[in-house]
Amino acid sequence: MADQKLERRAFAQKAEVRTNDAGIKTVTGHAAVFNRTSLPIYGMFYEINEPGCFREALMKDSTIVQAVYAHNDATIPFAVFRGGGKPGSMILREDEVGLYCEYEPLDSEMGRSLIKSIERGDTDGMSYSFIPLDEDWREMYNGLPLRRILKADIFDTTATPNPAFPSTDISVRKQNNSLEMELKDYANLIESRSGKHISEAESYLIANELRRRQLQLLRLTL
């Protein structure tokens, strides 16, 4: 969708360094995984990547995906994938697990430091940036909306020392507390005006609508 903004996710999928017979070291791992439910994102929804959601992006001639560290695109990339079968310095493909990537980091101080950091276990995860193009919000999971990513463009893959989905922090807890208060105030207001008790199902619908509106506001500030 044209109004969608860049989003980032990180997984506890281990980044590894492999050495081939020629002694060349490559970074390997899965930047994204399929069929795995995330932790609550921003405390507002869960997310699953559907198999095949990156397929079209990988085939597009316009796709350029950089391998960087911690989403820092201000530095020279370690490697680059080019879509549409064009030659590049990174392998990026879908497999049964998710979005697999493999590359030999650029022979630079940062590239050598990356290899050392992964080998020591300081950097042990993978992450990626994407823009969702098609998504499904019709399901609920653990009381929150479940977002299924059906199609997405991908912009970078990164090695990261923090391989976890965004979890609840102080600012998000404040948002959630505010949302709960808004829900109660809204339900009380409806009850007071209509003289009718708000059922659990009606409160559920109100909560979903408020979460949807909050998510829209959050996207504008990302």
What is the alpha-carbon Rg in Å? Answer: 21 Å
Mean pLDDT over all positions: 79
Q: Note the beta-strand portion.
A: 25-35%
Overall 3D geometry?
elongated
Low-confidence stretches: 165-178
- Class derived from helix and strand content: alpha+beta
Distance between the termini: 16 Å
Estimate the helix proportion, in percent: 25-40%
Care to describe what's here?
- The chain has 222 residues and is α+β, with helices and mostly antiparallel strands.
- Helices cover 29% and strands 35% of the residues.
- It has 4 helices and 10 strands.
- Strand 7 and strand 8 form a beta hairpin.
- The chain is elongated, with a radius of gyration of 21 Å.
Q: What's this entry about, in short?
A:
Helix content is about 30%, strand content about 35%.
Main attributes?
single chain, 222 residues, alpha+beta, six-stranded mixed β-sheet
Write the layout of secondary structure elements.
Elements lengths: L6 E5 L4 E4 L5 E9 L12 E4 L5 H5 L4 E6 L9 E4 L7 E5 L3 E6 L5 H12 L4 E17 L2 E17 L9 H25 L5 H22 L1
Parallel strand pairs: 4-10, 5-10
Antiparallel strand pairs: 1-9, 2-3, 3-8, 5-6, 7-8, 9-10
Helix pairs in contact: 3-4
